[in-house]
Amino acid sequence: QVQLVESGGGLVQPGGSLRLSCAASGFPFSSYTMKWYRQAPGKERELVATISNFWGRTNYTDSVKGRFTISRDNSKNTVYLQMNSLKPEDTAVYYCNTRFSLVEYWGQGTLVTVSE
After folding, report:
1. Could you give the CA distance from residue 17 to residue 70 in angstroms, rounded to a whole number?
2. pLDDT (tens digit per residue) in 54-103
């Protein structure tokens, strides 16, 4: 079965950094695009970053460009989101996502709170 398990969230001060991890299993990880989404309280889910299959092409939403970096380690079936220069508006539950066999899969999410 497909499983996505996020970790690494927590409370951080503005300007700080966190690295989120998503451990994937149950599908051929290296062949699939992985994405990070986030959902802030009272707001719609938004796509934050995308990394393609083994080629590793990346895309980011404008609000995080230059601050966040998505990466993957195919040997570990893990996708990462390095988050630097965090701002209060980055506060959200962060989810990793993939589409496998026409089905969208989501992890349980990890909460990132950026606050004094």
Report:
1. 14
2. 778 999 999 999 999 999 999 999 999 999 999 999 999 999 999 999 99
Instruction: Give the residue among 24, 41, 44, 42 at the shortest CA–CA distance from 33.
Output: 24
CA distance 109 to 87: 19
How far is residue 113's CA from residue 46's CA, in Å, rounded to a whole number? Answer: 16
Question: Given its phi and psi angles, is residue 67 left (phi above 0), alpha (psi -120 to 50 degrees) or beta?
Answer: alpha
- Distance separating alpha carbons of residues 115 and 34, to the nearest angstrom: 28
For the chain, the three-class secondary structure string (H helix, E strand, C coil) is CCEEEEECCEEECCCCCEEEEEEEECCCHHHCCEEEEEECCCCCCEEEEEECCCCCCEEECHHHCCCEEEEEECCCCEEEEEECCCCHHHCEEEEEEEEECCEEEECCCEEEEECC
